[in-house]
């Protein structure tokens, strides 16, 4: 009888130890983290093709961020283009599906701590050039126009003759990199400004902005285009 009691006690302790181990194992797969969410989404790829994905920086400060693209959404989080958001998230390791041994990370929103406007988004507007390659514009001919949309990371407009559209591959507080710019191919009069504008836009690598004015520069710091904002 005494032996049976000892055996029952041993089995009970073994069961409780197993339950505790499982609990600790599960809790170790979940942790809370402070991150900054970027003000714009980045292109990423998965099995379904190209996606627009969030990018996060881990840390308390947003100075010199190291952005990490995440392919999954943050559950419960409202992304706002044009704003850096400092939030607390829970990261949990979960199985992808029942047929896979690989694990994925599930992100869950916990709390928002701070929100900062991204000044780059003041470029989101329609711009008309004052100067092209340092020369004042003759406004008696059709003028080029440029619209910047950082939410979609694209620019579009007209060079005074043909419509164009292109991707913004990268933008910092001072530098900008355009992808391939595609345009229509119709013939027009007054192609001098059109050709100069195309050359200037394609050679632009950096920018400066002040109220109502935007200036592009080439890789040597020489002005390529100077724009005024139009409503």
From TrEMBL:
PROSITE patterns recorded: PROKAR_LIPOPROTEIN
Pfam families in alphabetical order? DUF4377 (PF14302), META (PF03724)
Q: Where is the DUF4377 domain?
A: 36-115
User: Entry's Gene3D superfamilies?
Assistant: 2.40.128.270
Please report the stretch or stretches of sequence annotated as the DUF306 domain: 125-228
This chain's protein is named: DUF306 domain-containing protein
In which organism is this protein found? Aureicoccus marinus
